[in-house]
Structures are given as structure tokens and as C-alpha cells.
Design goal:
Blueprint: H1 9-22, H2 29-53, H3 57-82, H4 89-114, H5 118-140, H6 149-152, H7 160-179, H8 181-189, H9 191-196, H10 201-218, H11 220-223
Helix pairs in contact: 2-7, 2-10, 3-4, 3-5, 3-10, 4-5, 4-10, 7-10, 8-10
Length: 226
């Protein structure tokens, strides 16, 4: 019998929590999908406002595209070292994380050394790395089937491990954002005030970019590049 039969709004979550406490092995695929999407939504909701305030909403969009070069690079490196058959999705996700961090570093570097606006820096890195990713896939992996999940995502293939990953990510964001909320707020609103109050602007600026990169990569399985 369906354990949620007759459950109302609040009782539904009570049943879900009780089943989670009982053991993740008992969770149905629909429950896993709900947990993954909910955790990803919480993470995005915590980080998103700071990107809006810093006029860097394009940054999250750029991450979702620039990780393509990370996926292709991870495959090429693994295939050259261990053969085309010796790689799995975790390898591709590591490559995606490296590409996301590279995007954050390059974006911050252009802002610091060329004094570009955040949106201009993101636009340059976005188009450059995405074009490089498309060229790499076109010339070197044209015979490879990465799977539609790399582009569109697929909630139907989500497993308990995916729920654990996104839950840990949501927990990290739930800890970091309230803990450093004042610093994130000052850095997002007024750089000069941050420097006056001796708030480490560069550190917390990159922390926002780093958390955004983690969020995008952790949600990759469910949402994909799009």
C-alpha cells in the first residue's frame, strides 16, 4: 500500500521524514527525485540572491555551459590514460567541477586585473570556454555518446547517492550562508564599505563563486547542461 495514501500537505512531509530516518534503501525512485530536486532548489535559493545583487546572474548560466569543456576534457584524459572504456559518470563530474572552478577563477581574474564589470567578465569567459567546449566535442569526441543526460539531465536515473550529494551541498550552503551572511551582504552591496570594515573582499567574493560552482555541478545529474 502507498504510505502516502490520504496524507495531507504537512503529513506528507512527516511520512517522508519518517521513511528517510528508517533508511534510504527503502526510498522509492519518486522520493529520491523529490529529495534531489528539493535540495538543489534550497541550494540555488540561498546562493541566487547574492548573484542577483552582484549582477552576476549570467555566471550560473555560464557555469552550466562551460562545464561542457570539463566533461569532454575528463573523457579525453581518461581515455588516453586507461582506454575509452575506463571511465564513469563520477569522472565526468570531477571534470565538470574543475571546469566550473576554472570559470570562477578566470572571471575573478578578469575583474581584478582588467577592472571589468562582473557581467562583462562573465560574458567573456562564458563565450570563450563554451566555444572551446563545443570545438573539443566536435573535433575529438564526435563518435562518443555521452548520453542525453549530459545536456538535458534525467531525474529518472537519480539514485540514493545523488540524494546524499545534493543533501550535503544543501547542508554546506545552509551553514556557510548564515555563518557569513554579514560578509556576503557587505561584499554584494558595497565593495568600498567592505574594504573600510576590513572584510576580505576577494575571499568572500570567490566563496560565492565557489558555492555557485558546487551547486551547479551537484545539480548536474538532474538538470544537465541546460
Amino acid at each position: 500500500m502507498n504510505p502516502y495514501w490520504g496524507a495531507q500537505f504537512f503529513s506528507f512531509f512527516a511520512v517522508l521524514i519518517r521513511r528517510m530516518v528508517g533508511g534510504t534503501s527503502e526510498l522509492a525512485p519518486d522520493e529520491v527525485q523529490l529529495l534531489v530536486l528539493a535540495a538543489a532548489g534550497i541550494s540555488c535559493g540561498l546562493i541566487g540572491p547574492f548573484l542577483v545583487l552582484r549582477k552576476m546572474t549570467l555566471f550560473a548560466n555560464s557555469l552550466s555551459h562551460t562545464i561542457l569543456i570539463g566533461i569532454a576534457g575528463a573523457y579525453l584524459l581518461t581515455a588516453s590514460l586507461w582506454g575509452a572504456g575506463m571511465f564513469d559518470l563520477s569522472t565526468l563530474l570531477i571534470g565538470a567541477l574543475v571546469a566550473a572552478l576554472l570559470t570562477a577563477l578566470l572571471t575573478d581574474w578578469l575583474i581584478r586585473f582588467f577592472r571589468l564589470q562582473e557581467d562583462a567578465s562573465v560574458g567573456l569567459v562564458f563565450t570563450g570556454l563554451f566555444a572551446l567546449g563545443v570545438a573539443t566535442v566536435t573535433f575529438y569526441t564526435r563518435d562518443l555518446h555521452l548520453g542525453i543526460e549530459a545536456v538535458m539531465g534525467n531525474v529518472d536515473i537519480l539514485q540514493v547517492t545523488d540524494a546524499k550529494v545534493t543533501a550535503w551541498l544543501a547542508l554546506i550552503n545552509l551553514v556557510c550562508v548564515p555563518l557569513f551572511y554579514r560578509q556576503f551582504q557587505i561584499v554584494s552591496f558595497d565593495r568600498n564599505l567592505a574594504l573600510t570594515l576590513r572584510v576580505r573582499y576577494g575571499l568572500f567574493h570567490f566563496a560565492i563563486l565557489f558555492l555557485t560552482a558546487l551547486t551547479c555541478v551537484a545539480a548536474f545529474r538532474a538538470i544537465g547542461v541546460i
